[in-house]
Structure formats: structure tokens, C-alpha cells
Amino acid sequence: LLSQMGPDALLTMILRKHPSQRSAEDLEVIYEELLHVKAVAHLSTSVRKELAAVLVFETHGKAGTVLFSQGDKGTSWYIIWKGSVNVITHGKGLVAKLREGEDFGQLALLNDAPRAATIILREDNCHFLRVDKQDYIRILKDVEANTVRLEEHGHTVLVLEKSTTDSTEQGGAGSSSKYTVMSGTPEKILEHLLEKVKLDTNGNDAIDSCVGDFLLTHKIFMASSQLCPALQHQYPLMFTVRGQPRVSYVTNALCRDLNPWRTYHAQPPKGSELEKADYSLAARQKVVKLLGQWVLLYGLLLKDDPVALDFLERLKKEVAADSRLSTMPKDQLRERRRTRLSENGNHSLSRQHSQQFDWFCNCEEPVGRLQPIRGQDKVLYEISRPDHIPITLMLPVNTSVQEVLSAVTKPGADCVLVKMNSMGDRAQLKLDSSAVSTGLGLNERLFMCTSGQVERLRPLKEQQGPEQGTADALEQMCSKDVASQLTHYDWELFTAMHEVELIYYVFGRSKFPGGATTANLQRFVRRFNEVQYWVVTEVCLCEDLAKRAALLKKFVKIASVLKEQRNLNSFFAVMFGLSNSAVQRLYKTWERIPSKTKRIYCAYERLMDPSRNHRAYRLAVAKLSPPYIPFMPLLLKDMTFIHEGNKNYKDKLVNFEKMRLIAKTLKIVQGCRSQPYVHSSPTRGLADRMLLEAPSIRISTYCDSLPCRSPSNIRLYVQNLSVIDNQCRLTELSRTLEC
Ligand code: CMP
Question: Measuring from atom 6 of ligand 1, which residue has the nearest CA?
Fold first, then answer.
């Protein structure tokens, strides 16, 4: 009989055998055949041999049969041996047709996620080679091609790659996900990540780190105006038919997707209405979980985004009506607090429970006195005329130069806006540039004049900085107290800034619609320069050699306390100041410094060594636990490198690898602030509270006997530093001190 069989019939007979009953020759026949199957042809001989021993032959007679539905648990991987299938996803309908030799169903196995699509037979009598999950994991998971590409309508929409990083970084504890998004269309990336959102709110925060990366960077490739409709699309609306819950998009999508020329009627996927309702609830919970994360991340910034606000408002009623949805954002906050924040952070939770559902109930205003500058805020514009008479007015932070000019001049007047630094370098500002007031550098000012007057503009006296130093006042202040107040102020500046400002700053604010502001970041960066030049200014304005040496010693001591307080930003600022050429050249002063102080200074210098991409600093920082204030200019440099070295899009798909790198830097900023420095306590002053409650920051004893030693005076002093930033003038001063 066997000798009369054609090769196809023989092969089919072998395949139909239970895998355990296949002989060595049978396996050889299957193995040979697999060489011609597109889905496995690229695999090694040994892998194909192993597959031959486990493949199960599966046939289905009727077109329209649902092999499995989106949301199902993944149990097997399939190769199409004969026939073809439709790939259908919720909301989108038919996205791909797969034919003989092609495969499907690997995604759920690789990512341990639910099925990402429904598979329906396109024709009668389809044959499949099925590999069950256990075998797939054993044989293929580690040897399969490193890349998985998903197509829709003939175009690649998602590229996943086997990741080399460890699973804890990729998916958090317990996640077995090893395939990560490399590129994709924004909508498909979102769809994929939503599928991977886990709903076990009892355990660890199961939000995949990829979701975090997406939310942190979405503004680069998916504005709210695109994100909100996409989320809406993923959010199935419930309606009832004769008292029974129905899910709108599931059945609609399927009816639309089945080929109209078929005579059969649209079959709903396997499973009861109840199962579908469960699936739909899970889909809505995933969207709500993602939105909860989104609101936690951007907080009140979302209130400045009309599209986001409108979307959240529209969804609010529906979420509020269903306790299975409305409690999720609170649970998320509780989880985050449990894992990240100290016990004290839980103070307001019980109160929130009794309140009505509100997306923003978890958003906290910064605790410090310094309020963040928001995109819609008005800020002070100080503009000088050529005769140095000032004009001051309050204008929205993002006002354009054109608007500033029309606010201060008559229509048609020949007027330009110029910014000038203390050296007298001028730049005429373009009419369409905006937010010029908050973007000014240290000692830089705005001027308004006719175009003919630009060349004759001179800096204001105040831009030159002080003529007298404050060494005497500083001498009275304890180094620890000065450092503490510096840190206190830095912490306020640092926390007033949102991580997304780094994206706006590096990519260019104009690329983002609406009220994108970088004002808080720029304020923080300006402060770095201010502290740096404060050190140089004070040293160069101190004429007495002995006092100058004491001042140098004091600055090294301040640097030391700043480092101890984990304020690396100001630590570097002070160290940069000390390493300025105008200070370095003062040999006589340095000679007078005790050798112990010098040794400390030299050790700190090594930390500043920029070689091997600031390796010394990076190693030191890696050991720190939050809270700490990072060296901001280096983070900005890292971001710029990532941005300039990687394209936003690869073959018209979002280069998500780049987004992950950007998110990694932003997460450093998040990590630094994941523990509070400040807790509210009505009895103590803010500075004292911060010192007490930051774990490693020591309490300093204030000597209040001298007025300038009081914390409030020191605070006033450090917040109002007056500095010379003109390097030529500083060098000149230094030369007059020691020629
Ligand atoms: P899995 O999620 O296990 O089940 C559905 C399968 O459909 C999926 O794996 C992919 O193998 C396959 N598929 C093909 N194209 C797509 C697509 N555009 N979106 C989702 N799944 C797709």
C-alpha cells in the first residue's frame, strides 16, 4: 500500500501519526519536507529535526472557523500547511492574510501575553502544523530568529526583537517577556503594550517597563491628539441588548471583516457573551490602568493639554460608574507608594477613598515654596531700552517675540528684541521664537530698540555683577548651613521641573504643540551656572590673601557637604568654580590651604574627570540611593547624544529603541526624586525638616546668635547670589590679586 501512495499522501499519513509513533524514517521525511516551508526553512538542521518529532497535524474543514480569538491564552504555534487564514484585530478588522508556508501564534508564547489577534479560516479544508507551547518554548524560544515582524495590509507595523537585557529590567519581577519593541507604528506599539498590561493589582506594580517608556516618550511620536483617539479605539464600549451585555466592537469588527463573497454568516468567536464581556472588561481595565499611569506621570501638566483633558473628562463618567474601573488609579498609587515611597507618603489615601472618582486625585502639587512654571502661566518680562530704562510686564511664558513687541510698541514701529549677555554679545531674536524670557542665560537681558540701535546697545550695570565680594558674610556662615540651604533650593528647583522638559529641551520646544515649556529646566540649569560663577566671583573679589585662602577652604568644605547631601549638581557647580582658570592660577592662595583640604579637593577632581564618558562620576552615582540631585548638564549631554545619534523613525516606523534610551535617562531623573526630601510637619522650619528627614543628611546645629547665621538669612543669601560671569573680567581680577 505504501509503495502505491503518492509522496503527498505518504507525508500526510506520517504527519497524522501521533508524534510518539513516528519512526526514524518518518522523522526524516518530515524533516526533508520542512526544508521547503518558509516559516522554518531558516532554522538549523537540529532544530528542524526536533520539530519533526513534535509537530501535530491539525485540519479544519470549514471556512469561517475561528481557530482562536484575540485575548485567548496562547497554547500553540501554527504553520499553515495548506490553505490560508485571516488575521483580525479588534477595532481594526482584517489586518492580514496569511498563506501556505507562513506561521502565526508565536507572539502570545514569546511574550506570555494574550492572543494579539483572532485567526479565522479563509477557505475550507485548511491544514496546519501545530507546535504546542511547551515544545515551542523548549525548542524554539531561544533559537528562533531574533526578530518578529507583524504586518498589516502588506506593511510592517511592529518589529520585536529578542532582548539581551535581563528580565527584571524588561518586564519587572515575574515577567517572562523577552521580546521587546524595536519599532512600529504608534498605534500598533500602543496596541501591543496594552495587550501586555497585566491586571494583577495585588502583586507588584505589574506595569511593564515598556509601557513606562512609551508614556514617557509618546510626545515625540504620538501627540495627545493621536494618542487619545487611539486609546478610545482600544476602549470597548458596553451596551446592552435585551438586558444582556454586548460589546460593541467585537461583533461589529468580525461582521465587517469576513469576506462578503462567502455564503456563511459571520460567526462570533468561540465563547459566550459572558466571556466576551470579561474580555471587554479586561480591555477597559487595561486602558484605565494605562491612563492612570499617564496621569500619575504627567500630573497637572495634562490639565494644560485640552485634548487630553477633554478625553479624560469624557471617559470619567463611564469609569466612575464602574467600581472595577474607578478603583484602579487609587490601587496603582497605593502600589507605587508601597514600592517607592516611605510610609509617610500614605497620609491622604483614606481621605481619597471617600471622594468621587477623579483622574487627578492622586496628583500632588510640589511641597516646596517654589511653584513650577506651567505652560499657561504668565511670567515677568523685563525689557530694557537703549537708555537702560526698563519696561516690565507680565506675559504668558510662551509668548512669541512678535507678541512681546506688539505688547510694548505701536503697530508698524521699527522695533526689534535683542538679548545680550554681560560680555556685550548680542543676538537679535526672530519674530517667531518664543519663551525668550525664561530662556535667558545667566546675566543675560532683553533689550528693545530700533534695528539701527542694535550695534550701540551696551549691557546694563547689573549684568556686570558685583564689585564687592561677600567673603565677610560668608565667613560668618557655617559651611554646612550654606550647603544645606543650597541643597534645599536646588531640590525645589529640581522637583519643580518635569522630566518631559528634558525632551522638549533636547528635541526643540517648537516641535511640540500647545504649552510645552522648558522654563523649569532652564531655571535649574541657570542655577548651576550661577553657583559655579558665585565661587569664582567670591574668590576673585576677595583681596586679602588670608581671607581668600579661608574662602577657598570653605568652598571645598561646602563641596564636601553637598556631596554628602547627595546634591551632585551643586557639588559639581562648586567644583567647576574652583577649577576655573581664574581660581586655579592663584598659586599663593592654594599654597595656604591645609594639605588635608587639598587632598580632599584632588579626590573630588578625580570624580569630575570627564574621561571614558565621565566614568568616575557614573560609578559613584550608581551606588547612590534616592533622593539625590544629579549632575544635570551631564544628563542633558546624554540626552543630546541619544537624540543626535539616533533617528526618530526607521523605515517610517517609530524607532522605539531610541525612545527606550531616552526613557532610561528620564527614569534616572524620576529615580532621583522617588523618595521625598521633605515631609510636612507643622512644628519645624522647612529647612530643618528636610535635613531631618532625608535619610543620609545630617542635622546641622544652627547658631542663631549672629543674624546672618540664621537659616532664613542664609536662605535669602543663597537665593540671591550676584555673580560675575564675564570670564575676561574674572581673569583680570585674578591677575590683580596675584600677578
Ligand atoms: P499571537 O498573538 O500569538 O496570536 C495571533 C497571531 O497573529 C499573532 O501571534 C501573530 O503571529 C499573528 N499576526 C500576524 N499579523 C498580526 C498583526 N498585524 N497583529 C497581531 N497579530 C498578528
Answer: 105
